[in-house]
Amino acid sequence: MLLGRDPEQHALERLLDDAREGRSGVLALVGEAGIGKSALLEHATARAAGMRLLRARGVASEAQIPFAGLYELLRPALACLDRIPEPQSAALESALALRPPSAGDRFAIGAATLSLLAAYAEEQPVAVLVDDAHWLDGSSADALRFALRRLLAEPIAVVLTVREGRASLLDGAAISSLRLAGLSRDAATLLLTDADAATVARLHRETGGNPLAMLELARERLPELTPETPVPVRTSVSQAYLDLARKLPERTQAALLLAAATDRGELALLGRAGARLGLDVPDLDTAEQAGLVALREGTVEFRHPLARSAVYAAATPEQRRRTHRALAETLPDADADRRAWHLALAAAGPDDAASSALAQAAVRARARSAYDVASQAFERAARLAAYDDSRALLLYEAAEAGWLGGLAERTAALLDEAAHAAAGGLLALRVDHLRGHVALLRGPMREGQTLLVAAAERAEPAEAVTMLAEAVVGGFYAADGPLMRACGERVSALVAAGAGTAVFGRLAEGMALVMAGVGDAGASAIREAVEAMERADELDADPRLLAFVSMGPLWLREAGVGRALVERAVAAARDRSAIGALPHLLMHLAILDGTSDRWAAAQAGYDEVIRLARETGQSVVLAGALAELAWLEARVGRADACRTHAAEALVLAREQGAGLAEIWSLAALGDLELALGEPEAALARAEERHSLMEARGIGDVDLSAVPEAVELLLRLGRAEEAARLFPPFADAATAKGQPWALARAARCRGLLFDAFEPAFEEALELHARTPDVFEAARTELAFGARLRRAGERVRAREHLRAALDAFDRLGAVPWAEAARVELAATGARPRRRDASGLDELTPQELQISLLLAGGRTTRETAAALFLSPKTIEYHLRNAYRKLGVHSRDELAVALQSRRLEPESIISPP
Question: CB burial class (10 A; 0-12, 13-18, 19+) of residue 18?
Answer without folding.
Answer: middle
